[in-house]
Design brief:
mainly alpha, single chain
Amino acid sequence: MKRHRPLPPTAPAPAAPVLSPTLRTLLGLAAAVVALAGLSFARELVGPLVLGAVIVIICHPVRFPLERRGWPSWAATTAVIVVGYLILAVMVALLWYAGVQFARLVVSYEDELKATAESVVSWLRSIGLDDQAADATASVLRPANVLSFATSLGGTVLSVLTAFFFVVAYVIFMAADGARYSRAEAAFGRGVRPRVRRFEAYNSGVRRYYVVNATFGAIVAVIDGLALWALGVPAPAVWAILAFVTNFVPNIGFVLGLIPPALLALVVGGWPLMLVVIAIYCVVNVTLQVLIQPKFVSDAVSLSLTLSFFSVIFWTFIIGPLGAILSIPLTLLVRALVLEGDPDARWLRWLSGDHDAAPMHQAQAEPD
């Protein structure tokens, strides 16, 4: 019998080429640019949809005590929707009242605004500022410009609210689906538990963020309103509402809420009253919003101060003015989708301010 020689071992198939880290980074950035360009193009739809989602996330826990008391699922869902639209109705009423009163103030103080603008121009020229720069600075106090600013701001708010009402059906369906999503683990098993917990943590972070902001905003609004009332600044309720609303804009909301009452104080009381208003706002708002509130916000959402400040600018650029109010939930959503599911991105999570992104060896050492 002939012996067959064993065949030589076949060479392993060549491994598929692996992309270099630099190329993977460039491809990821290119994909992010395309996605963000699409969001920016559809900003009139994306902004209201995100706002609706945030309202449903905030109101969703209303259903749990009702279901424990025996309410049917449809009744608990209806309660969530009712609470959401009550929040929206209150915000609309506050903004409408503030806008109407602001327009009346501009008309009532038209002559004083013109006189103040002329005096500011004269003072700026006396200290050596050229005519063009002086006129540009004083134009802030001209009644037409002030009223146009209020009109544009009111128009922006109205367009956002109108768009939100156009997606009312989407909000209703999303509130109804909230009950179904809570049963995902029972339907698909324990394998989906990490994803479910990730989004539960996201929803909890969004709720805590807005509860903290609403609490501090109400405190700041009451103190600022009472201080302006004591100083004799007209329409203190309007500026209190403005202080409450701008508190939802991280980091720069304080400045946005200060400018209108400070300018009005300059018109009715001159430089001394304006400086007193600025001093009170700085003491109250800096103490509460800069020194105390960031600690509670950081504990609620685990975002670094630098990232939260950049988020305001970035999302305002992407989806417009509504992005300033929704900047933190959008940033948290990106982190939950992109980083929290990738074990290799722990250091990026830690860099963003996530306190739970411990080093891998520490995470393995922690008991389950």
